Amino acid sequence: MKDQAGTRPDVSAELGALRARIDSIDDTLLALISERAALAQQVGHAKQGERIYRPEREAQIVRRLRESNPGPLSGETVERLIREIMSACRAVEEVTRVAYLGPAGTFSEQAVHKQFGHEVDALAEADIDACFHAVETGRADFAVVPVENSTDGAVGRTLDLVVASPLSICGEVMLPIHQTLMRKHGDLDGIRRVYGHAQSLAQCQHWLSRHLPDAERVSVVSNSEGARRAAAEPVAATLGSEAAAALYGLSVVAARVEDEASNTTRFLVLGAHDAAPSGRDKTSLVMGAKNQPGAVVKLLQPLADAGVSMSKFESRPARSGTWEYLFFVVCEGHRKDARLAAALAEIDSRAAFLKILGSYPAASA
Amino acid sequence: MKDQAGTRPDVSAELGALRARIDSIDDTLLALISERAALAQQVGHAKQGERIYRPEREAQIVRRLRESNPGPLSGETVERLIREIMSACRAVEEVTRVAYLGPAGTFSEQAVHKQFGHEVDALAEADIDACFHAVETGRADFAVVPVENSTDGAVGRTLDLVVASPLSICGEVMLPIHQTLMRKHGDLDGIRRVYGHAQSLAQCQHWLSRHLPDAERVSVVSNSEGARRAAAEPVAATLGSEAAAALYGLSVVAARVEDEASNTTRFLVLGAHDAAPSGRDKTSLVMGAKNQPGAVVKLLQPLADAGVSMSKFESRPARSGTWEYLFFVVCEGHRKDARLAAALAEIDSRAAFLKILGSYPAASA
Question: Which of A118, B263, B283, B286 could bridge across to B359 with cysteines, CB 3.0–4.6 Å?
């Protein structure tokens, strides 16, 4: 005999017991999450007008839970769920407004929700400048902007803007990125041209050389523009997100064509202040130097002497001013850590120009 | 004296106590959610190959928690969090694949996540036909497609497809929809043309008549196409989502211009089977009738006699077959409820054509 759902009676009894336990867990979850939200309200009242979102506090909570995660959920899933719960609790007091590089549906929007959960006002901006501007004018509390990709390097406009802006870096988000090759009809045969944003083309160059050695690569302003052109040209294909295929009526020729499986984009979270120490932090700074032999070594020496490790180092021609190059450095530790603070003071005494862009919790891998 | 974060010591002590309690809650939440995921695995093993996603079971859990919600979180937030937790637990066993009307970032994608949470494979399809096809060919487990808007009515293509498809309706999703008016530069002055998808124009017709009585309204294939044109025509504006403004470099002239503040789109969830009874269900059916006086009344009489209320009634010219009109009916109750079952049997004996499209849990308002 089977019940309504077509299940045998012994299995039904087992399912019934399991579901009763799940129901009881759900009741407790609701009670605890509700109490958590009420406590978050009390925290908000105690802080009286101070900002509600504390990146260092949320980073500590996420790390503690990931480290004590017993399974079977992945650490990534545990992080996502607790960030959603924190997002909901925060929103009881105040809805955080986050500007990002639009449109909706892009990787940047994913980065917003990865960091802030879904109970935020996510504001799609037209370009990276507008994201900074939204926070500078108070229209948004935070901005989330791409700063570099693991394969093809820095997003120049973001680096230029952090130098000039009064905003501080208060967080970073790491997001895995996948590229899709698509065209109007057909497979790889007959593709004579591949469109894509310069960054997308760079992320897929080995794949393209191997599979489409004779196809011309054309860098366009955005992958959307590439898709628009590919839709009109039977011999062309474009790189982009799978979502673009649906939008422009293209078929997917090959998925995940990025050269590095670990292709990741790093985003910065910018706000009026940086973050307090969380126990595992990074500090970003930019230094100006003349184009003289040894100038860079002299500036970096204090970090080496203090035993501070650098995770990024990026040089960039200065747009203005008396120095010729700007050096962007990301080092481990918080600017309030004694060792780093001393090294930064020493660099300050040596550099023509030093700006500490902010200290913030290191993102989970 | 203030501490590092600029907070007074007495407040610091209070915050410390609140945060200690939050930490303890978070530890318990992690333990419970992990146990819940392990139980979901056991349910999956007990069911041995049966489908993991049970819309009626999830609907019951959501309703129970919304009804017992003590606050301060809203019922909507409680629903969202528990759906995310269920989504994560489900994904431990099997990742549900859901086809939807792309591109990513649209209202349809929001409807997918509202119903299934974020731990799903959301597949962006080019049109509504492709959504059905994805499930029919086994490329997706479910499809989420728009079926009607509270202001401007039915999505004809979806109605046509449910009649012909072997798929059943196993769920519905209600999503509030907001329309934005945008143009290249400036405010309402000088707008001589308003682009928009026919549905968007319909949803905003009173607003447009009041604020732009002399502007021509031009129906285009999509709001994206409207945005593309508005970007090129200084005297034109377009309707669409705020996200489109960023994508096409338009400025927002007015937000929330839909005539009804409660403007809502209803989506159907389609799968291989409909849902088992959840305690608060709807049943969708379609009937064929000749264009004869009294034919419709005769078909609907059994529902009235059984005291079954109808929440929707929609007539549509038949594309083929011997009947001339199709009548789409949504009534309260599950097709396995004795009263409704008897009424449906009676309709079946009277109708030239009757197809029960499925029974499914009624969505939260």
Answer: B283
